[in-house]
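Q: Sequence in, structure out?
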Amino acid sequence: MPRLEPGDVACWVLKSRTAPADIDPGWAPGADSALDRCVRRSYRLALMTPGRPCLLWVSGAHQPGVHALGEVTAAAADGAGGPVVGVRLTRLAEPVARAELLAHPAARDAEVLRMPAGSNPSWLSAAQYAAVLDLVGPPGSRATRP
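A: Exactly. Output:
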């Protein structure tokens, strides 16, 4: 894969093996949470600027997929265990399942699906991000339904 340019990335993908309720106890569906997420040191961190869309991808055997949507709030900075990036995420009432994305023609080739053990952060193109938003649906649907 050639080096990413700012125009390549429509949405950053932050991966976790931990479910949202365990990341931030009390984080209810439809609610926002301000978090610092660990990322791998790479050139990609310079592209993760405040205001850019991002999402939380939960991997593993239990409900893998998109669990929250939001935006980058702070550029990467050194944390105790390595670099961290600040984000504000809204937890989805129902995750967008990995299987749904694999079945979607615009999303099936996303880096997070092709290389699930790859770098954190991962990214989505404009078409892939649009597919995620399409699967989330309008407000009052999967995004905020308790």
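The beta strands are 11-16, 32-38, 53-58, 65-79, 82-97, 122-124.
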